[in-house]
Amino acid sequence: MLGPALALIHTGQAPTRSALTTALDVTRATAGAVTGELEALGLITVDSRPAGGGRGRPSHRLAIDPAGPVVVAAQIHADGLSVALSGLGGRLDTPRYLPLPDGTDPVRMLRAVAEAGAALARASARRCLGVALALPNPVTEPDGTALAALHFAWPSGTPVADLFDQEVRRADFGPRARTPLPSAVANDANLAALAEHRHGAGRGARHLLLVTSGHRGVGGALVIDGRLHTGSAGLALEVGHLTVDPLGRPCACGNRGCLNAETDPEALFTAAHRIPDPAGPLLGQARLLARSAAGDAAAAAAVEHVVDRLGLGLAGLVNILNPDRIVLSGLHLDLLAAAPERLAAVVADRCLWGRSGRVPIVPAQVDHAGLAGAAELAWEPYLHDPQAVLAGRS
Ligand SMILES: [Zn+2]
C-alpha cells in the first residue's frame, strides 16, 4: 500500500488525501495511516490547513517534501555529459553540462559522470539515495552491457552497468548519501518514455509509443500499462532500423534508408541542401531549420521529405503495436509542429485501420527527458518499497 500511495503522489495523481483514498480504494483511516507513514519517512508533507474558498470538508493536501531525499540523474549524449539532482515528483534541478572527456574509453567517461554527480550530491543538504545513467545506445537486461555504442566506439558488450557501479563506489557522494549507493543504467529513449508517461505527454496512455531523434539517429520506446516494454533482453523497440526508403541514405548499421538515417538532423540538412555549422550542436541547428519551414521554401520541402519518411516508420509501428498515443520528441517534435496534418495523413494512409483508427500524435512535454527518466530509474526501488529509504542510514 505504501509503494502505490507514493507512486500516486509522485506522479501528481493524488494531490489530496481524498484523491488518494479514492485511487487506492481504501478507507479514510487507512489513507490517513499511509500518508502519516510516508510523512514520517520524510518523503511527503501533509497539509491539513483549509485551502480557503472551498466548500465542504477540506481534504488534506499531499505534496513531495521539498527537504526530502534526492537522486542523481546523469546522461551521456553524443556530444557531452549532463548531471542533475532530482527529488520525487519529477522535480529535476537545472542540469550541469560537461564536455566529453578526451578519448572514448568507457571507464574514463563513466568516471567523469560519477564524479560530476558526486559533486552535486556533496553540495546538497539533502540525502542522496541513488544514481542512474541514461545512455545513447542499447543496454541489455539484466546484465547491463552496452551494445552498438556507435557514438563512442566502445567495444560492443562493454559491461557498462558494472563499470558504472565501480565508479559510483569510488566517488565521494558525501556523508549524507546512502552507502553503498545503488546505481543503474538504461537506454535514453526508454528512460525518456518513462518520464513522459509519469510526468508529461504520455500521462494516462495505456500503450504509449515514444519516437525521438536526438543529435544522431532515432530511438523508440513503448510503455505498456505504466511499465517499459524492453523485450526479452532489453533490446526491444530498436525502431531506428525500420526501412522507410530502400534506396535511401546509408545507415551506420550497414543498410540503407533506415528511419535512423532518413529522419535525423543530418537527413533534414541534406534534404534542404544545406550544411550545418560544424562548430554548433547539430540537433539545435536542425530544430531551427524545421521551425523555419513556414517562411522558407527549401526548409519546407525538406520538412515534407523527412515527415513522409517519419510517417512511414510510425505507420509500421502503429500496425504492429497498436498504441493509443504516440509522443514525438527531439527533432521529431519540431517536424510534427511544422507539418502536423501531413504527418497524421501519412500515418493514417499506411495504417491498416486507416483514418478511423487515427492515433493521437503529440509533442513531448518533459524537459531534459533523458535525465528525468534516469531519475525515475533511480527512484524505482523506493517507489516499490518506500521503507527502503531507511536502508544504509548510519
Ligand atoms: Zn540502420
Q: Given the helix and strand composition, which structural class is it?
A: alpha/beta
- Report the span from N to C terminus: 27 Å
Number of helices: 13
Bound molecules: zinc ion
Write down the Rg: 22 Å
N-to-C series of helices and strands = HHHEEEEEEHEHEHEEEHHHHEHHEH
Low-confidence stretches: none
Largest sheet: 6 strands, mixed
Helix content: 25-40%
Overall pLDDT confidence = 93
Detailed description of the structure:
This protein has 394 residues and is an alpha/beta fold. It is 39% helix and 17% strand. It contains 13 helices and 13 strands. The strands form 3 sheets. Strands 3, 4, 5, 6, 7 and 8 form a 6-stranded mixed sheet that branches. A 5-stranded mixed sheet has the order 11-10-9-12-13. A two-stranded antiparallel sheet has the order 1-2. Helix 8 packs across helix 9. It is globular, with a radius of gyration of 22 Å. Bound molecules: zinc ion.
